[in-house]
Structures are given as C-alpha cells and as structure tokens.
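Methods — Computational structure assignment.
A single polypeptide chain was analysed. Its primary sequence is given first, followed by the predicted tertiary structure written as structure tokens.
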Amino acid sequence: MQINKVLEQSAQAFTTYKKTSLAERASFLRNMAASLGEIKEELIPTACEESHLPEGRITGELGRTTGQINLFADYIEEGSWLEATIDHGNPDRTPVPKPDLRRYLVPIGPVVVFGASNFPLAFSTAGGDTVSALAAGCPVVYKGHPSHPKTSLLVYGAIKKALEKSGLPTAVFQHVEGGIKEGQDLVKHPLTKAVGFTGSFKGGKALFDLANSREEPIPVYAEMGSTNPIFVTEKPLGDLDKLAALYAQSLTMGVGQFCTNPGVIFIPEKFAQRFAQTAGEKLEAIEGQTMLNAGIQRVYSESLSEMEKLSTVTWSKKAEQSDKGYPALALTDTTSWLADKSLQEEVFGPFGIVVSYNSQEELMEVAQSLQGQLTITLWADQSELVGQDDLISTLQEKCGRLLFGGVPTGVEVGYAMQHGGPYPSTTDSRTTSVGVYAIKRFVRPFALQNCPDELLPEALKEANPLGIPRTMDGKLVS
C-alpha cells in the first residue's frame, strides 16, 4: 500500500476542495446521503452479516447515518459555525490607526479517520468523523475497520458516486486497508493534519502518543469509552422493579457494545442487594448474542474470568460459558470499589457492577475519584437534588454529558449534543464526536487585516452575500 501516494493525492485534492462554496459542499453531502439510500438493499444485510447486529438495529443506524449527513449539509449552509467576525478599521483613531480585521474558520487539511467496530455505519466509513471533516472542507483518508470490510467498501462506493455527481476530485475521500503498521504510517505522514478515532483506550492513546511524537504534532480526536456511572438516590427506588428493568435493558443494548453502556451503578446500601438481585433476574431472561467479533468476545470472557477471582464481589448473574456475549452483574461496596482500580475499568460488553454506598460523604468520595466519563446519570427525585450543588458540580467536572433520569445509551444527533468527556474517555474534552459541533475539530481560526473587499472570502465581504450570521464590531448580526 502506497500511503505516501494516498496522502499526496489527498493534499492535492485539498487545494480544490477547500475552495468549494458552502452550497457546493452541502450539495455533495446530500448526494452522499442519497447514494447510501440507493444501496440500502445490499448494505443492510451485508452490515448485519459482518457485525452480527440485527436488521432493525442496522436499519436504524443507516437512518441515523444519512440523517446526520443531511444535518451537516443544512448546518454548513446556515454558516454560523464559521464564526465570521468583523472589526471595522478606523484610520482616524489616535494615537494609532485601528486596522480592519476579519476572522473566520478555515479547513485544516487532510484528515485520517479510523472506523469503529461497534457502529459499522454511523461511526465508520461515512460516520460522524468523516462527515464533519468533509463538511469542514477537509479531504478524508479512511482506514477501513477489519470487522466489516465489505460494508465499508459498499459505503466507499456510494461516496465515490457522490463525488462524481458533485464534480469533485475523487481523492477528496480515499479508502485504505491494512493493519497496525498502515495505521501508524497514516498518522505519522507529514501531510496528515488531524486524526479521528473511535475505539479502545489502548488504541486511541497509542495514536495520540504517536501524533505528538511527530516533528509537527497534530491533534488526535479519540473517543475511547467509559463506564458511564449511574448515581441513584432513595426516592426513585420506590419503584425498584421498574428501575432494575430499565438498567438491564440499557446494559444489554447491542450486547453491551455501546460506548455509553452504564457499566456501574451506585445504589444506597439498604436497597443495593435487592436491586442487584432484581436486575440479575431481569438479565436471566435475556439471551446471549454474538458479539461484534471473536476478539471482543475473548476479551469480554477474559475480563469476567479475572473479576470472578475477586473476593470483594458477589454475583447476581454470571455469564454462561459460551461463544456468545451473555450478560453478567456483580455487587460490591464503595470501599472495595475505591480500593481496586480494576473494578473501575470499562468491561466492553453486557456487564455491570452494582456498588452500595451508605452516606452522602461516600457518594461525594466516589464522585471525586471518578476518571473522566462520556456520561454520568442521576436517578434522583427533584426534591433530593436541592442542596446537592457540590455533588452536581463535581460530576460536571467528570463528564461530557450529565443526564437527569433516563439511560445514557442512545445518543441524539443534533445541535447541542456533547459526546466526549474528560480524559481518559477522550483525548480532548473540548470537542464532540456526535452532533454538528464536531465540525470545529477540523478547522482553525484565520484573520485578514486591511484586506481589499474584492479579495475577501464571501463569508467576510462587507455585503455578506452568503447571508450568514456574523459578529460586527462586537454585536451579533443575523
């Protein structure tokens, strides 16, 4: 594989693609969504076969994928994301004339994207990382995931068709295959300007370290998962059976292979054993399913085997010895959980651990000890949250999204979604990998000083031909 040739072609395509208008880019994205829809009869069964995920799940994921592509098309045309800002000059100001300054966001260049195993469509070839980079005006080099190669190639074909229909260089999107070495070569190549990754902590951290060891360090936006804790207070447990069923359902969604899977739940001590028993009974009724690939199944089984050696946990539901991902649920106490780092680590699969606590002080200690999380959920009556400012403030520091009720599985694609949290859940807590704000990862600020109007980009021209929202002399003007 000639990685150098691929990146050179990507850099050459950038010289053309970065100059496209917002309308041209949006049209390309809409063509991409339409092309994916045209191949759904072949794409859905192929993705099901390779990922072992059911047809309903893949059908929904395809809808999410095309939906987010069209959302980005609308968003880039609206234009507020460009942050166009104008400070008019004043040559008569004394003692120093004031220059005319105009600032906006510009694309950074070729982006390398690594696909996710657990979302063969929405977080892969035409997933959020790819689409947000393309929307920003950056070419993409996509590293195919070995878990779903046929699916990825089908999507690649649809993107190529959209590029041809839009009259854009084919190297705006390129698909490469290979192993660890090819991935490393892509990150190390001097023409690569950023990396998008969704996967394990080990993989994401390795790419992050590699990118920072380059002569020119580049950003790696790695979403690496978390345990997504749920904190439960007493009053909601008046309907313990309902909560146990809700937890069991969330824990086993997609065979527990969601980055927002609620792997740990904190329950008041007097309810903990009954909750664990009830949730365990709910899990008994849920059949094991084939996981995404044999490697994930092996690691899941090995993680549970290691945990079964611990004397500090008891089991409400053990996973059956099988080649499928059966749910499992353990119970421990706060002291043991705080003392043993292995209990705090993510187990990728349908495993959860119930942790009992017996005081507000213990709950605060847990909150303060948490690593960075994608999500944290509070199951609490509103009356119980009064006076809990310190707890809520602490939890805010530990996650990217704080839920009041509900479950974290299922991430809405929209304008206000934040999918990314403090390290080690991601490598950069200032960004999101879901929602339109993801575009900000692949742009940089650029200013022009005293530039003649005829040379200005349309976003900064005085007449505002794009009709986009802009900040003029400190005031937002629509």
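Note: The CA atoms of residues 79 and 468 lie 5 Å apart.
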